[in-house]
Amino acid sequence: SPSTRRQFEEMLDYFGEWPFIVRSSSRLEDRYGNAFAGQYDSVFCSNRGPWQQRVAELLAAIRQVYASSMSEEALRYRERRGLLGDNEQMAVLIMRVSGTAGGRYFHPHAAGVGLSVNPYRWNPRIDMMAGVIRLVAGLGTRAVDRSDDDFTRLVALNAPDLRPATSFGEIARHSQRRMDAIDLLEDRVVSGPFAEMVRDNPDFPLDLFTTREDWDKPPFLTFDRLLAETSFVADLRTMLERLHAAYRHPVEIEFALNVLTDGRYRINLLQCRPLQVRSLEGTVSVAPPADVPRLVDAQGAVIGPSRIIRPDRLIHVVQSRYAELRQDDRVAIARLVGALNRASADRTLVVLGPGRWGTRDPWLGVPVSFSEINRVAALCEIVAMNDNLIPDVSLGTHFLNELIEADMLYFALFPGRSGNRIDEEAILGRPSRLLELLPHARRFADVVHVVDFEPGSATLFADAERQQVVLACA
């Protein structure tokens, strides 16, 4: 309406030419019981250029956010949780982006997400009730969404010095290389090499965020001094504790960090929502028997609490066959896995496959959406697509939240590394039920193998503290 448009125009006058983000705030999204994170769009606007262009950009962003509530992914999410009949009402939040302009790029110095509880304990020293954050330089989009080309810093708030990587070489290899920012000239969010993105920004706190192996080596992002020499970790822990207490429920936050010229810093709390956590019940005894044949031994990357799973169906995407497929066939495999997922509603599923699950790039893994694997009990990525893809905790937070809510185990298998083995001959030697379940899938019968186990014959043992998974089958 004309009056609403006038209010938008007055808001733009108030913002000046400061970049802003349009994001959703809906009844279903914000209530307890559902982790709606990432289901609806958020749209960045650079807010530069002629007045009418800026107004048009704002209105287009609002339309996109509202339209996203009717996306296939959002509707399937609501269907899975019996919410299709609920009355969904949405408002939009229009917020100035926290940050500063360094030349053509606008971004906060750092940003991230925080959980007031840490359901993913990769070391015995970690206190699950102390919370965890994922920290990146630049816009928080790299902490929220899965970035297949990079890494983030995961910080257990009671032990910020711990990290899944241990040696200096591993830390350097698994440090963030690229960052996201708003390109004020191109009017869009861009990703680029970290060093190039901050080169023209003399105020960027390089000394606080980066580490060098030697004085003549290039710096890389570790955030070590920020975590060790400031009260940043204590402040985040206090913030999460107070929000958890106020909500009387675990929470997830998004935040931005800007370091001031005098060395102080400002944390902007951007968003807070209830976090759905099902598994915080401590360690169970998960030692596998020594005398049972094993189909899978995996060690080195387990994301999820320790548990024992008794699967009755295994879906195996054969890496050697998948590697031969064209891109469109790889996308078809993702849809095929989704169809098997829907056909297995009454089954306890374990799924094995090459590369990253949920990737946007079919050359890096199987590009499923979460709704296509939502009935899976345990999901394994076989790290054989690319030597530089290290899965450990490289999941984006929206994908991670879906895992938490679904109480799904996610683990990696590293062929050729000590403690890792898959008996593919034994798996492929069992009859495949693929064509019984999906007769139209004959073209991919040698790529996807579906095995049904006799009740009680297969057991998956997952030990999160030892980072070890065994799938045994009598």
Number of domain modules: 3
Strand order of the largest sheet: 16-23-22-19-18-25
Largest sheet: 6 strands, mixed
Span between termini: 68 Å
Q: How many individual β-strands?
A: 27
Fraction in beta strands:
25-35%
Q: Could you report the average pLDDT, rounded to the nearest whole number? A: 85
Content-based structural category: alpha+beta
Instruction: Name the overall outline.
Output: globular
**What are the low-pLDDT stretches, counting only 5+ consecutive residues below 50?**
279-284, 389-397
Number of helices: 15
Rg calc:
23 Å
Helix content: 25-40%
Keywords:
single chain; D-amino Acid Aminotransferase, Chain A, domain 1; 6-stranded mixed beta sheet; 5-stranded antiparallel beta sheet; 26% helix; globular
How would you describe this structure to a colleague?
This protein is α+β, with helices and mostly antiparallel strands and 474 residues long. The protein folds into three domains: 1-96, no CATH class; 107-277, ATP-grasp fold, B domain (D-amino Acid Aminotransferase, Chain A, domain 1); 294-473, no CATH class. The chain is 26% helix and 28% strand. The protein contains 15 helices and 27 strands. A six-stranded mixed beta sheet has the order 16-23-22-19-18-25. A five-stranded antiparallel beta sheet has the order 8-7-6-13-14. It has a five-stranded antiparallel beta sheet with strand order 17-26-27-15-24. β22 (376-382), α13 (397-406) and β23 (409-413) form a beta-alpha-beta unit. The longest helix has 18 residues, at 51-68. The chain is globular.
Walk me through the topology.
Layout: H1 2-15, E1 20-26, H2 27-30, E2 43-45, H3 51-68, H4 72-80, E3 90-96, E4 100-102, E5 105-107, E6 110-115, E7 132-137, H5 141-144, E8 153-156, H6 168-173, E9 178-183, E10 188-193, H7 194-197, H8 206-209, E11 210-211, E12 220-221, H9 224-229, H10 232-247, E13 251-259, E14 265-274, E15 294-299, E16 302-303, E17 307-309, E18 313-317, H11 319-322, H12 327-342, E19 349-354, E20 356-357, E21 365-366, E22 376-382, H13 397-406, E23 409-413, E24 421-422, H14 424-428, H15 434-437, E25 448-452, E26 458-463, E27 468-473
Parallel strand pairs: 18-19, 19-22, 20-21, 22-23
Antiparallel strand pairs: 1-2, 1-3, 4-5, 5-9, 6-7, 6-13, 7-8, 9-10, 11-12, 13-14, 15-24, 15-27, 16-23, 17-26, 18-25, 26-27
